[in-house]
Amino acid sequence: MLDFRPELSAIWAQLQLTAADTPNVAALFKQEPQRVSDLTLEAAGLRVDLSKNKVSQQQLKLLLEFAAQSPLNHHRSALFEGKPINSSESRAVLHPALRDFGDIAALTSEYRDTVYLQRARMLTAAEQIRSGEWLGHTGKPITDIINIGIGGSDLGPKLVYEALREFRHNTLAVHFISNVDGAEIYSLLKTLNPETTLVAIASKTFTTQETLLNAKTTLAWLRQGLDIEQVEASSHVVALTASAANAVSYGVAPERVLPFEEWVGGRYSLWSSIGFGIACAIGGEAFSELLQGAHALDKHFAEAPLDQNIPVLMALIGIWNINFLGYPTQAVIPYCERLGLLSAYLQQLDMESNGKSTLRDNTRANTATGPIVWGQTGTNGQHAFFQLMHQGTHTIPVEFIGALQDTLSDATHHRTLLVNMIAQASALMSGKPAPDGQAYRDYPGDKPSTIILIEQLTPASLGALIALYEHKVFVQGSLWGINSFDQWGVELGKKLTNDLLPKEADLSEFDASTQTLMGLINARL
Ligand code: F6P
Which of 52, 247, 442, 502 keeps 20 to 30 A from 92, CA to CA? Predict the structure, then answer.
């Protein structure tokens, strides 16, 4: 039984009662002398300091009891066993199987061979491109790959490509086109040579409007540039998809369809052949390290007891912030410019997973659910929205992320960067009273934060970091009683776009504002 209503748990009411008495965060450090060591955990190369959160160890114990009495353990086993926990679509959710190295007892081995074969095909293709063996129509090696995909078929690969800049092939570039905004694809195509360009159409379903239109435009450019009719079937096009049949009927040569399985959710797919652009950029060995990093975190999540389990503790603190302290947003601030796309990636991972108000039992949620996730890199954010975080009327919990070393930087820059992060977390928590008569200089403090440290930004540490967030989101969905793996909320907008697209569309059913605005568009386009 997967259903759960958190507010019906007796502990929920107790948590509500105790939340009103939560001390100031700085005071918690005085009351709990072991707080830093008790609330700092390490796993898979991540060091996570939870001590600056506004939760006492007693309250955290209660949150852990709530988790222990919920179906979380059952959900976690069901995930790893490949049970159809995506109940609205009757599907398993097995992204940990994409990074299976055979040592997680709970993880089903049913798909090991399939995953291995699919990965081997994808890595072989990537290696042929990297080595120059994969030739275009006119006999030239590939220098540029355009990944055409959106949502999960874009954000994960793009994040990893940017983050692992240091590990990239030096003559091969990957470009990411997601938005249906034609200015993007047309601008990019002006800079590329069709003879040396490979188009990777990345779409789990192979039906996504934006992706198919961008692909159509790009293939027309290839067709014209190369003077071949069946350009879809040429060596300039690969498909990354769970719908091989759709890709083949689109015209892609079957040997250039790099498949993955239906049980890979779009926003969990960077580990599958959707990661083709990553593998082309960083090579098979580094891609495997990325998988190993995520796997190490999977193992920790699958096996660590709840009170030592980092994704579980981060999820519980998130629930505490949202449901008991009333802080609805979550800022994620990496002190590393190469992680600049992390918040965009996490917005899909978290908000498409848990941005729901209907529970698994088909009833409305009575509690708040997924947070509004946002952020950007430090130190840039400090000179933009940190003002509101220090002195505004909203309390914004922050997850800071830093790497202890950076081989692309130097000691002066890197120390300055990290010290900024530590100083901000400290200022947010401790605050500072205003001098007499200068209330505008009051820093109230008491703002919660978590600090995640990695040794260095490598494929392995990045894999672990992403998997940490995947599991945090999973735990929160489980504890809110949500199916985190569907996304029905995006369907209505897609349907209305299709209804409105034909110029002769009947507008009479639409509101007056929509009719007027469509009139303006119809007069021009
Ligand atoms: O926005 C909805 C969504 O279905 C996402 O969940 C998904 O990642 C994205 O569209 C792209 O879908 P596809 O990979 O099938 O093109």
Answer: 247
Catalytic residues: 352, 383, 494
Residue 265 Cβ contacting ligand 1 at under 6 Å: no
d(CA 147, CA 202) in angstroms, rounded, equals 7
State the distance from the centre of ligand 1 to the C-alpha of 75, rounded, in angstroms.
Answer: 24
Query: Which sign does the torsion angle of CA 305, 308, 311, 317 carry?
Result: positive
Residue owning the nearest CA to atom 8 of ligand 1: 152
Each residue of 399-445: pLDDT tens digit?
A: 999 999 999 999 999 999 999 999 999 999 999 999 999 999 999 99
How many Å lie between the centroid of ligand 1 and the Cα of residue 426? 39
Q: Please work out whether the CB of residue 179 comes within 6 Å of at least one atom of ligand 1.
A: no
Distance from C-alpha of 144 to C-alpha of 128, rounded to nearest angstrom: 14
pTM above 0.85, yes or no: yes
- What is the per-residue DSSP string for 368-434? --S-EEE---TTGGGGTTHHHHHHSSS---EEEEEES--TTS-HHHHHHHHHHHHHHHHHHHH-BPP
Residue 1 has pLDDT above 80, yes or no: no
127 Cβ contact partners less than 8 Å away, ≥ 6 residues apart: 133, 283, 284
Among residues 255, 250, 268, 253, which one has the least CA distance to residue 208? Answer: 250
Residue whose Cα lies nearest atom 9 of ligand 1: it is: 151
Residues 213-236 pLDDT 10s: 999 999 999 999 999 999 999 999
Regarding the beta carbon of 490 and ligand 1, being less than 6 Å apart is answered yes
